[in-house]
Amino acid sequence: MPTISMFYGIIVQMFFADDAKHHEPHIHVRYQSDKAVISILSGEILAGTMDKKKLKLIQAWAEIHYEDLLADWELVCNYELPFKIKPLD
After folding, report:
1. Global pTM value
2. Can you tell me the distance from the alpha carbon of 51 to that of 79, in angstroms, rounded to the nearest whole number?
3. What are phi and psi of 65, to 5 degrees?
4. Rounded to a whole number, what is the distance in angstroms from the first to the last CA of the chain?
5. CB 57 within 8 A of CB 8
């Protein structure tokens, strides 16, 4: 599972060929003991839990990097390594 970005203690990852369970482009995020699957399209949590303040940061970052995330999604669906995405400053 490649890590595509890290910021403010948040780790953002994508799994290879991970489109079967959630049926839409998504990212996996971890922060301390929280783990969540977040939709790239809507920013909503599909599974798990995330601190509300950290979720807002993740959603802002995902909105800024929407096109990059969709491009990386296409890569991982084809078992290719995704590109790193600039963290939130």
Report:
1. 0.91
2. 30
3. -110, 30
4. 24
5. yes
Cα–Cα distance between 38 and 60 in angstroms, integer?
12
* Model confidence pLDDT, tens digit, residues 22-64: 678 999 999 999 999 999 999 999 999 999 999 999 999 999 9
Domain residues of the chain, as ranges?
Answer: 3-77
Q: Assign 77 to helix, strand or coil.
A: helix
Place of tokens 């790193």: 84
Report which secondary-structure segment, H or E, holds 3. Answer: strand 3-7
In one-letter notation, the amino acid at residue 47 is A
The length of the chain in residues reads 89
- For 16-67, give the secondary structure using H, E and C: CCCCCCCCCCEEEEEECCEEEEEECCCCCEEEECCCHHHHHHHHHHHHHCHH
